[in-house]
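Deliverable D2.4 — example input (structure tokens):
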């Protein structure tokens, strides 16, 4: 089953466009978890078990695990294996943001898709299509291309005007016209820029799916970006929240608190679909 089909099925089953970012921070994890071996995995497992009926995807950020060295990568692998074995209907998006020459991308892709067995990854388009063909050739996997990101300094390059249009709009046009030959491309569109999101929706049409970071801690307003970006059949968005859900509580009730927050966000999103 390819990524978009898997995603569509879980959206229906869980009535959800919410993605939970599995971005463990040892300084924020509850102390009774942080003191244990495999703290990241234990924390992730509890979050996954309490939110599995509320999400359309999980999104671990590779950087959090890489920073912990070999042990961190092992726990990332354990997390992906746990989702694939226990909740196989829920897709995994690896927040990777890789970009290099084709030969190097081949190894990045192998790590993500063959070792971790994730369903989708984020990539950077700066190196161009030829270099990224190593990712795009995985026809059953989702290739999520950075377009207009949610960080405050995103406009430094993304808003540069080229031939009368900002660079991020050229990226969107190229993805839909040239890169998406296998129908496996998606775009990263930040929740903090609803107007830009609406413009890109006009460029790519109703069927392209957007990964939308920036909900919660980064300040994205749910109503504005859902109205701006919703696609065909009231879908077309994977709306990610990480810190607001993961760290709803620092006590032994952290998993239940995360569930309550995920349900609140899921329901808020659905109110505006």
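Example output (designed residues):
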């Amino acid at each position: 089953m390819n990524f978009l089909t898997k995603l569509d099925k879980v959206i229906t089953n869980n009535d959800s466009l919410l993605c939970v970012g599995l971005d463990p921070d040892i300084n924020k994890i509850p102390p009774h978890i942080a003191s244990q071996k495999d703290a990241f995995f234990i924390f992730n497992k509890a979050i996954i078990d309490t939110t599995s009926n509320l999400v359309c995807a999980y999104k671990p950020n590779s950087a959090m695990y890489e920073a912990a060295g070999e042990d961190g990568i092992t726990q990332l692998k354990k997390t992906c294996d746990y989702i694939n074995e226990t909740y196989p209907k829920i897709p995994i998006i690896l927040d990777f943001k890789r970009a290099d020459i084709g030969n190097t991308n081949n190894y990045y892709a192998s790590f993500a898709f063959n070792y971790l067995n994730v369903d989708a990854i984020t990539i950077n388009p700066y190196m161009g299509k030829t270099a990224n063909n190593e990712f795009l050739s995985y026809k059953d996997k989702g290739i999520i291309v950075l377009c207009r990101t949610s960080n405050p300094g995103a406009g430094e390059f993304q808003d540069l005007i080229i031939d009368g249009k900002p660079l991020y709009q050229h990226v969107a046009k190229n993805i839909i016209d040239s890169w998406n030959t296998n129908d496996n491309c998606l775009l990263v569109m930040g929740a903090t820029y609803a107007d830009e999101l609406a413009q890109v929706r006009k460029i790519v049409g109703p069927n392209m799916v957007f990964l939308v970071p920036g909900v919660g801690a980064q300040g994205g307003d749910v109503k504005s970006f859902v109205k701006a970006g919703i696609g065909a059949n009231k879908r077309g968005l994977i709306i990610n929240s990480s810190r607001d859900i993961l760290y709803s509580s620092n006590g032994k009730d952290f998993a239940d608190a995360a569930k309550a927050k995920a349900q609140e966000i899921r329901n808020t999103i659905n109110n505006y679909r």
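The chain has a mean pLDDT of 95.
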